[in-house]
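ok, trying the design again with the full structure, not the truncated one.
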């Protein structure tokens, strides 16, 4: 399946504006495309009872599962306090992505210079844990 990286990044940027981050001030948005071509998005939602918040990637995955999606073809994540800055998924989210990934699942991020960078999930989470 062909993935429009710019479109996924734009969807992640748009949902980032809905993030609830009063404690960290770090707003994150994520958008993914599933095996049917549907787009699902999520933003981070913090909570005063740490660590009860939820990451943007986890919320996008939850939206995909709730809609019946089963596989992530590609996922984009963007974040920053004010302006966008380089932001990679945390370790927990890398494992969450892996749970619904195939070997060619791409993780699309913004680089330090604002460019779009694409990684395979296995590049971000080598020697991953898989329960099969």
């Amino acid at each position: 399946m062909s993935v429009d990286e710019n479109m996924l990044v734009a969807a992640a940027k748009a949902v980032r504006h809905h993030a609830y981050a009063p404690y960290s001030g770090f707003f994150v948005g994520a958008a993914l495309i599933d095996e049917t071509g549907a787009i699902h998005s999520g933003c981070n939602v913090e909570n005063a009872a740490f660590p009860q918040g939820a990451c943007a990637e986890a919320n996008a995955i939850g939206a995909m599962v709730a809609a019946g999606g089963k596989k992530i073809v590609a996922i984009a994540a963007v974040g920053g306090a004010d302006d966008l800055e380089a932001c990679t998924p945390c370790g927990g989210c890398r494992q969450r992505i892996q749970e619904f990934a195939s070997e060619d699942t791409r993780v699309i991020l913004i680089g330090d210079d604002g460019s779009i960078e694409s990684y395979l999930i296995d590049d971000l989470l080598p020697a991953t844990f898989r329960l099969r």
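Keeping the full-length input from now on. The chain has a mean pLDDT of 94.
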